[in-house]
């Protein structure tokens, strides 16, 4: 019944990347005739390169280049055959030298992504379980999708959260032989380290715990023989640890290698590890370059290179310590993250640094949460101290300018990254635009006539409707049904509204708009923990309303300024409440709003479509039927009209206790059967308040005595309807008896009786709301696409639900 079109993650990412490309900071092309590692040319501008992941600069080492050239001359550009048959003549030497580095024979893969796909499904057995750090690299998460097809449990924890990890270990310990925790050694965005020592201590407490590290960003610049960050901590590889390292990035060549001390498992992976069997092997040039790099790693020269890079990292850290720049993680890795919080601030700062001659990487969604946008600066041996110093000076110069241009601040950045937990309350007052902000926590403080003129006649949020919602959803025993309301009216100097809206604050299920398959899995977990994967949400409108919650006088010369002020004030409330999610919802498509909201750190997502009947002008059933399309007329004659005689239709605005209990049971039938829009179940107290409010009435469907299997009439359907300003009829909630629903087409009949009631009572339109828009369209409703803009503290819930997307219910 409630089929909806869910948001597509790829569409969201495409929107973000398209915006960054438009700003000229992403999907660029180097134009150099020759590359030296120190500089790079883009759009005719030569810049110092602070965006590489080749931290030791070996990709420009003449020994690697000469080895690659010689290999091509001797063996060709490729060796087109699977390694299962035969490896090219250089492979044995590479494997031997990587073994000398680690003391363990490696498994060489084309790259780390294919390496994970080869290793993880082979190493993880059907009786095992997996726990992912939610910031572990996409390539690891992608490989784990294959495990779920086999019914292997795959859980996720917040980044480096040891308490959450231990909780998940305990949860899996009774049903899993081994429990694999998968993490990065060095994380590619913030440059922070996995807590390797603590993880090893945890593995002593839980012998089932095995650790799988993607250490491609810790390779070469750390560890004896450049064996990586993880081994720099461990010294030797325990039996319960596996590491994927890279032969590209800092190593300077191409490919990846698995380091595993279990000989039997290593042979299984090598014998049949997916891409290892069916994908092409490394080209001779790549193998030869990797051999040359291994020679450097096996010599004392690697220590000199590491020390040189460490000196530049220390120098950069020393310079940064003398500034107030918000570097999010302070450590000795070559990856630095300058937080900006807002994408627009990032774009402006990157553009300025490009013009000043410094290439840096914008860090945007989905690599980081949209509100944790920033700039990734990476150091390499190519960078000289003078340009490092110049870069710091340039960032110091242009950072405050970018903040000012984008109405951003250090406070907002620190707050977005959890660096400042203080409560910040700003008095909402007249600003220098001449606009005045009225901010209230109850509709009682808002002028009723004004509100109804600009936002009335929609859904259930005219003035009286909001007064009802405030009364109904306050002081409830259940946390999930206890809401706060916030109102904003922005007026010009003539006291005319330029913008007006309201927000609610309460608990939402994180999967509210997720596919039903995800909600089914989460509802199983909520049987033990009813508030599992829920968030504190500050949202435009509330869960009981739908429609255009934001009035904007778009012709007003200060309309844009009013929206900027609203976003500023809502951000204050959002942070004061310490909400997890901020949602601006039910907008029509607007390129202008897309730009404004994205630049303030919001992602655009598709909302469920909404349905309305805008005209109720027919005088008879025949006229109504003739207003439908030919296809809909056929549907009406076959699926709706013949069943009307099966019911006695009653309109009531008062119910006794037994009737209310029955209606509530029918509502819960629908609620429990519909996960397309997954919200909490409203308590019966809400419905008792409805029937004591003059704007609510119920359409009741009783099986007629001829149809009922019992002597007395039987209630099988109910529509809870709100009367908005005597203008809009709003069927807000529905209840069905599924025993009879299909046989008598109860849902379709309720829709039709709603239309009849609205016409009889002289309402001008019907707001049918979300879900089942196909059915509503067949009865003459017009369907409107809607979008929302969201801002999350972090990506954990979204990534967890993404992980569940293809998982079957166990």
TrEMBL record:
Pfam name, any one: Aminotran_1_2
InterPro entries found in the cross-reference section: Acyl_CoA_acyltransferase, Aminotransferase_I/II_large, AON_synthase_class-II, PyrdxlP-dep_Trfase, PyrdxlP-dep_Trfase_major, PyrdxlP-dep_Trfase_small
Co-factor requirement: pyridoxal 5'-phosphate
Transferase recorded as keyword: yes
Coiled coil: none
Domain of life assignment: Bacteria
GO molecular function, a single term: transferase activity
Domain Aminotransferase class I/classII large per the UniProt entry, residue ranges: 46-394
Keyword Thylakoid belongs to the record: no
Organism: Flavobacterium segetis
SUPFAM superfamilies assigned: Acyl-CoA N-acyltransferases (Nat) (SSF55729), PLP-dependent transferases (SSF53383)
UniProt keyword terms in alphabetical order: Transferase
The protein's name: 7-keto-8-aminopelargonate synthetase
């Amino acid at each position: 019944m409630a089929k909806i079109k869910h948001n597509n993650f790829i569409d969201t990412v495409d929107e973000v990347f398209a915006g960054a490309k438009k700003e000229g900071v992403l999907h660029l092309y180097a134009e150099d005739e020759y590359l030296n590692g120190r500089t790079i040319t883009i759009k005719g501008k030569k810049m110092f390169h602070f965006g590489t992941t080749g931290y030791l600069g070996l990709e420009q080492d003449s020994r690697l280049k000469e080895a690659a050239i010689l290999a091509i001359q001797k063996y060709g550009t490729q060796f087109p055959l699977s390694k299962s048959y035969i490896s090219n003549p250089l492979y044995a030497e590479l494997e031997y030298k990587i073994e000398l580095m680690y003391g363990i024979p490696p498994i060489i893969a084309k790259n780390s992504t294919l390496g994970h796909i080869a290793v993880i499904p082979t190493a993880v057995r059907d009786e095992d379980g997996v726990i992912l750090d939610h910031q572990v690299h996409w390539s690891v998460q992608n490989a784990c999708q294959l495990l779920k097809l086999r019914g292997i449990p795959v859980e996720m924890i917040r980044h480096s959260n040891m308490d959450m990890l231990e909780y998940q270990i305990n949860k899996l310990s009774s049903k899993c032989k081994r429990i694999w925790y998968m993490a990065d050694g060095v994380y590619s965005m913030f440059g922070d380290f996995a807590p390797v020592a603590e993880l090893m201590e945890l593995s002593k407490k839980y012998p089932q715990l095995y650790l799988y590290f993607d250490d491609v960003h810790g390779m070469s610049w750390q560890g004896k023989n450049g064996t990586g960050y993880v081994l720099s901590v461990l010294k030797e590889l325990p039996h319960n640890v596996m590491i994927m390292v890279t032969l590209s990035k800092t190593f300077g060549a191409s490919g990846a290698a698995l380091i595993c001390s279990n000989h039997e498992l290593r042979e299984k992976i090598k014998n049949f590890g997916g891409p290892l069997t069916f994908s092409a092997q490394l080209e001779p040039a790549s193998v030869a370059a990797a051999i040359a790099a291994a020679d450097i790693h096996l010599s004392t020269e690697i220590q000199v290179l590491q020390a040189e890079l460490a000196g530049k990292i220390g120098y950069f850290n020393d310079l940064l310590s003398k500034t107030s720049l918000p570097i999010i993680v302070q450590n000795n890795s070559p990856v630095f993250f300058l937080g900006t919080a807002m994408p627009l601030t990032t774009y402006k700062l990157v553009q300025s640094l490009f013009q000043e001659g410094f290439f840096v990487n914008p860090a945007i969604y989905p690599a980081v949460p949209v509100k944790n946008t920033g700039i990734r600066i990476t150091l390499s041996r190519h960078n000289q101290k003078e340009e490092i110093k110049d870069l710091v000076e340039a960032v110091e110069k242009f950072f405050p300018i970018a903040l000012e241009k984008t109405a951003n601040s250090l406070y907002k950045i620190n707050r977005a990254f959890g660096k400042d937990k203080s409560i910040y309350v700003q008095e909402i007052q007249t600003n220098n635009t001449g606009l005045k902000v009225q901010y209230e926590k109850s509709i009682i403080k808002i002028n009723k006539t004004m509100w109804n003129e600009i936002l009335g006649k929609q859904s259930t949020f005219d003035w009286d409707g909001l007064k009802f919602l405030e009364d109904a959803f306050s002081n409830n025993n259940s946390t999930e049904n206890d809401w706060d309301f916030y109102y904003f009216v922005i007026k010009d100097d003539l006291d005319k509204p330029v913008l007006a809206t309201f927000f609610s604050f309460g608990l939402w299920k994180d999967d509210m708009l997720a596919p039903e398959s995800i909600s089914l899995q989460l509802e199983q977990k909520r049987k033990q923990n009813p508030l599992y994967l829920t968030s504190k949400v500050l949202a435009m409108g509330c869960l009981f309303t739908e429609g255009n919650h934001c009035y904007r006088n778009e012709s007003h010369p200060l309309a844009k300024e009013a929206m900027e002020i609203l976003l500023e004030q809502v951000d204050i409330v959002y942070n004061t409440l310490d909400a997890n999610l901020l949602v601006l919802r039910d907008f029509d498509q607007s390129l202008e709003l897309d730009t404004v909201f994205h630049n303030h750190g919001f992602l655009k997502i598709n909302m469920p479509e909404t349905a309305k009947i805008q005209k109720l002008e027919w005088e008879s059933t025949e006229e109504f039927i003739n207003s439908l399309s030919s296809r809909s007329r056929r549907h009406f004659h076959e699926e709706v009209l013949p069943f009307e005689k099966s019911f006695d239709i009653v309109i009531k605005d008062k119910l006794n206790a037994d009737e209310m209990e029955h209606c509530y049971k029918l509502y819960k039938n629908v609620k429990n059967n519909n996960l397309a829009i997954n919200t909490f179940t409203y308590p019966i107290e809400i419905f008792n308040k409805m029937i004591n409010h003059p704007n609510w009435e119920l359409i009741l469907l009783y099986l007629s005595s001829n149809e009922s299997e019992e002597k007395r009439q039987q209630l099988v359907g109910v529509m809870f309807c709100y009367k908005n300003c005597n203008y809009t009829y709003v069927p807000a909630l529905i209840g069905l008896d599924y025993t009879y629903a299909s046989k008598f087409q109860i849902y379709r009949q309720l829709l039709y009786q709603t239309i009849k009631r609205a016409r009889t009572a002289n309402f001008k339109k019907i707001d049918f709301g979300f879900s089942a828009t196909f059915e509503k369209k067949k009865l003459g409703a017009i369907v409107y696409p809607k979008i929302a803009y969201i801002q999350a503290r972090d990506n954990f819930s979204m990534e967890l639900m993404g992980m569940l997307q293809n998982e079957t219910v166990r």
